[in-house]
Amino acid sequence: MNDADTAAFERSILQQLSEMIIINRNQPSVFAWSMCNEVFFTQRQTIAATKNLLRKMVERTHQLDTTRYAAIGGAQRPLGADRFDLLGDAVGYNGDGATIPDFIRPGIPSLVSEYSTTTAIRPGVYDPGWADLQKDDAYKGLEWRGGQCIWCGFDHGSIFGSQLGKTGIIDYFRIPKRAYYWYRNEYAGIAPPEWPTEGEPAALKIESTKTKGILTDGTDDVRLTVSVLDASGRLISNSPDVRLRIVSGPGEFPTGREICFSKKSDIQILDGLCAIEMRAYQSGKTVVEATSDGLASGTIELEFVGGERFVEGKTPVVADRPYIQKRKARTDDDIQILGTNNPTFARSNAPGHSAGMAADGDEQTFWQPAPTDKAPQWVLDTERGITLKRVEVTLGNATDDVTVSISNDGGYYIQLAHYDRAPQKIVIEHNDLTMRFLKLNFGSPENAKIIEAKVFGWLED
């Protein structure tokens, strides 16, 4: 980007910032303006220009609103002279930011958010899923902690692949996972339901968030939930393929007049439950049926109101638009290089050598454990699920007793390699294991040092 392009870009950003503040500054819910989030993902050669832009944004914020902070968000990296966090009046750190010694007391108001939940496919476990927050135990008693922010409430689409997208306590189909019931019980005192177990499936049941007076203007979707029941009407966890279809009347699913749920598809039925949104653009009564081979079907009647009336056999119905699950062939061009500026955690840190320095893209910095740490450990969270291609770790020198392990959930690890005498550069090739976390264990603090760690692999679909 040349000087003219840089100036034009800055003007555009400052204009957008100004509009945001002018439009929203009378909102009582705003207590600070955030200039950014995780700007450390910029390339190292642009850090100076990025800091210069942030200073201008802070100044513009002060001009337009003298009553609120101009905050620098997601500023837990980098360290040293390049750090962003002190450019504003307040600062936000994400995830592992609470465990990095340099950021514990920055000298200005601070907030730590985006403590990652655990990745879980419904139903998951009856547990808060604090994940990164569990690594922050040592700091929970400090006077600056005012609360906890969990990330996130709902499974979400993500550029990081499917695994990171499944970190919510409610899944894509808006069915709660068991972690949701933990929070509801803990903070609202509502006991969890009885969990379904395997049984003999006999019938299907359909329920809707609303059955009458459903508007047809596109603002009043209903969510249909199908349950698998045994002969006594008890919800069970069996999850056969289920088909929902509109028998009569107006309405459509995302796939047209019918939709199929399967454990083998992205449109899933899990733990005996599946759900989907439905809407109609004409008024009238609609009958929806749920079927599955060998089971008694379930039906429900819905009443849509407003707009043109649906006439059976005359009003055109939506064409089928079946979902096609696409799997892209993997090539070397699709390999992701992960590690730099991803969250890191260590059992201990020597002064001036915190965990993030082993994943900051700077080979002049390094992580080193405290000399009193008898069993040093360092962990990298790539923040996404990948199929592993290669691990590269640059140690400070050849080191005795080093173990390299990987994990999908941060709890159960499998060992990739153990070295009685590890070389200065560890390279491990692999082509079929999935992972999210990389862990290195050292037999002693003597010579334990990581300059840089990187993981190469394909994002999981």
Summing up helix and strand content along with how strands pair, one would put the structural category as: alpha+beta
The best one-word shape is: globular
Q: Mind telling me the CATH class of the largest domain?
A: Alpha Beta
Radius of gyration: 26 Å
Percent range for β-strand residues: 25-35%
Number of folding domains?
3
Walk me through what this model shows.
There is one protein chain. The protein has helices spanning 3-24, 47-64, 162-165, 178-188; strands spanning 32-34, 69-72, 90-94, 110-113, 115-116, 150-151, 203-208, 214-215, 222-229, 242-248, 258-261, 273-278, 284-291, 298-305, 336-338, 344-346, 377-395, 399-407, 413-422, 425-429, 434-442, 450-459. The strands form five sheets. Strands 15, 16, 17, 18, 19, 20, 21 and 22 form an eight-stranded antiparallel beta sheet that branches. Strands 8-14-13-10-11 form a five-stranded mixed beta sheet, with no helix packed on it. Strands 1-2-3-4 form a four-stranded parallel beta sheet. It has three domains: 3-188, TIM Barrel, CATH 3.20.20; 203-305, Immunoglobulins (Immunoglobulin-like); 332-459, Galactose-binding domain-like (Jelly Rolls). The longest helix is centred in the first third of the chain and has 22 residues, at 3-24. With 461 residues, the protein is of the alpha+beta class. The protein starts with a helix and ends with a strand. It contains four helices and 22 strands.
Summarize the structure.
The protein is 12% helix and 30% strand.
